[in-house]
Specification:
The complex is a heterodimer. By secondary structure, chain A is an alpha+beta fold. Chain A is 49% helix and 13% strand. In chain A, helix 2 runs antiparallel to helix 4. Chain A is elongated, with a radius of gyration of 25 Å. The two termini of chain A are 31 Å apart. Chain B has a four-stranded antiparallel sheet, with no helix packed on it. Chain B has two domains: 31 residues; 106 residues, Immunoglobulin-like (Sandwich), CATH 2.60.40. Chain B has one helix and eight strands. The longest helix of chain B has 27 residues. The chains are: A alpha+beta, B alpha+beta. Chains A and B meet through helix 9 and helix 10 of A and helix 1 of B.
Amino acid sequence: MSASYSAVGWNRQKKIYDWLIAGFCIGYLALFISLTLLFNEQVTFETLLIRSTSTLAVLLLHVILAIGPLCRLNKKFLPLLYNRRHLGVTMFSLALIHGAFSTFQFHALSNTNPFVSLFTSNTNFGSLPAFPFQALGFFALIIFFLMAITSHDFWLHNLSPKVWKTLHMFVYLAYFLVVMHVMLGVIQYEKNPVFVIIIFVGAATLITLHLLAAFKERKVDTASFALHKEGFVQVCDVHEIADCRAKIFCIDKERIAVYRHDNKLYAIHNVCKHQGGPLGEGKILDGCITCPWHGYQYLPHNGQSPPPFKEKVSTYDVRVLENRVWLNPTPYPEGTERPGSPI
Amino acid sequence: MIKPLRKRHLQIWTAIAMLLPIAIIFSWLVIPNPVPVKMLSASSIELLPVIQAKKETNQYCINIRSNADKTNWQLEWKNKLALTVPSADIYQTEDGSTDITKAQLIGRIEARGDYVFPLKSDSIQNNELNLVLYDFIHQTVIDLINFKYLRR
C-alpha cells in the first residue's frame, strides 16, 4: 500500500521472496549447465545459455500461472501471490536472454537484418512440422515485455484497472504461444517422448487448477438466498463468522464481505481497489480489513483506507436479528460510513 | 476479482482446455519419422577400422568408415572450426540433388564436436554416397559432399 510511487516498496517479505527467486534460478541454471557439460562437453556457450534460460523461463511461467488458482483453492498458497510480479519480471528477463541470444545465433550471421531474417527465413505457414515456430516465441516475448514494463502500480493506476487487467490477461495467449513455440520447435527434433510428456503434464496441471478454481468460485456466485425482507436478505447464522474474519456472499451481481469486529458486523464490497483481491478472504489487522493479496487496508465502518491513503470501497447495511445475519445488497457510495450491527 | 472477470477467466481456460491438448497432440504426431540422430560423440561409439574415403575442408573432416568385409558402414564427421550455424542436419541423397524432401536423414550435428552416424550398407548404391549438409533453421543447403568408388 502506498501514498506515492517508489521503484519497489521493499519490506522483509519482499526481500525474502526475491532471495528465494534468485536462489532457485541460480540453482537451476547451475544444475542445468553442470549436467549438460557432463553429458555433452562439446556444447557451445551460446547453446548452453539459450537452452538453460528457455527451460527455466518455461518452468517459471507454469509456476506463475499456477499461483492464482492455487490461492483460490487453498489460502496456504497466498504468500506466493504477494510478490508474483517480481517472479513475472524474472521470467521475462530469462525469456529475453533466450530470445536475444537465439536471434543473434540463428539470424545475426548474414547480411539480412536479424529481425527481417526471423520472419523471412522460414515462411512455411501452411506446414505444421516446418512451421516458423520462432515467430511464436517472438510474439509471446512482446506480450511478456508489455506486461513487465506495466507491472508497477503506477501503470495500474494510470492505465485504469480495466485496461491494465485486460492487458495482463494476454498472458494466457502468451502461454499458448510459448507451448506451441516449444512443440513446433525443439520438440520436432526430439525422439525422446519425455519432453512432450513434460509439456503435456504442465498444460494439464494448469488447465485442471484453473477450471477447479473457476468452478469453486462459480458456486459462490450462484448461491441463492430464500428469505427476503424489506430489501434485506438472510445470508447466514451469526456464529458462522469468526472474529476479525469475514464471510463472502454474492447476492445480485457483486460479492460482499461481511466482517465481524469488536462484536459488530460490517459489510463492504469484496473487491480490493488495488488489484481486485478478495477482501473477504483477508482479516482485520490493527483495526483495518487487510487484503490478503498485497496488504491494502480499509476501515470496516466506512470502507476507506486509513490516511494518508485514498482508496475507498462501497459499504452496505447489515443487521442481526435473532442470531441471523441479514444483508442489504444495495451499495452505498464508496467510503460511506455505516455504524455496523451489534451482535 | 469482479464477476465479469471471473467469467472471462472461465471462458479463456475452457477454450485453452479444448485447444491446447489438441495442438500438443497434433504437433507430436507430425514429428518427422525418423527424427535426426543427435550428438553421437566419437568417444561413445566404436569406430570401424577401415577408412574407405575421406574429405577435408577448412571447416570439417569427413571419414567414411567400414569393417574389413564392408558390411557395416559409418559416417565420421569432425568439425575443425565451429560452424557458422548452431546446428545442421546431414541428409543422404540418391542422385546428388539437394532436394531434401526426397533425401534420407542421417543425423544432426552442432557447431562444434565430432560425430559418428551409422550408415545402412545398402544405402551406398553405385559405389557412391551423396551427402547434403542442411541448415534447417534457414532452410538452406550449406554444402553438398560427394564420395565415389566406395566399394572398389
